[in-house]
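I am sending you the entry underneath: sequence plus fold tokens. Let me know what the token row says about the fold:
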Amino acid sequence: PELLTLGVAEALRGADVVLYDRLASEAVLEHAAPGAARIPVEKRGHFVSKRQDSIHEELISHARAGKRVVRLKGGDPFVFGRGWEEVLALEAAGVPWRVLPGVTSSVAVPALAGIPLTHRGVARTFAVASGVAGTVTNTEYPKADTLVILMALFRLAEIVPHLLRAGYAPNTPAAVIQDGSLPEQRVLRATLETLADAAARAGFDSPSLVVVGDVVKLNEK
């Protein structure tokens, strides 16, 4: 919760309705006004989830009822999320909206794990990629000094061969970070070719983020 911006904390305190996803912790929800309706609109890969159209309908219906609505999303709704789909739905319905950006998970989670995305003499570029493209695994990845891959944990065995073809060496340092920013955060360091098996043996689960590049070994213990 300490990573909330002042603007988001203020919006939560003034909300009548908070529609929140599964990455919003209970500690964050405690910032909402005591009388605010807290409505889960969870989406989770491989599980039954709230349909996106239903989320749009809830946002619009509460707003049209005169409620002050906060749509609380974790990670980063504008980086491989569906935040802009919701904006477009509000626009089409004539509902006024504003965005309160937070700290993006693609940068914050590695930092919380002691992994900088750039470092003088080690890495001067980084890229962020998705581990999925609709329902099909991505097959093309950018070549950068540091690569951050979101939603990749359960597709690592498919993704790694594509990374090797993109020019990443099998022994490139790599890490998976689970539950970034939460008390139960876990970090596993390995190499690109061993990461999938190591994460499976250690029982890593989503939400997790993968980092590939020499920066991973800067704080290796």
The chain has a mean pLDDT of 92. Strands lie at 17-20, 37-40, 69-72, 126-130, 146-150, 173-178, 186-191, 208-212. The CA atoms of residues 19 and 75 lie 15 Å apart. The helical segments are 6-13, 26-29, 52-64, 83-93, 105-112, 156-165, 195-201.
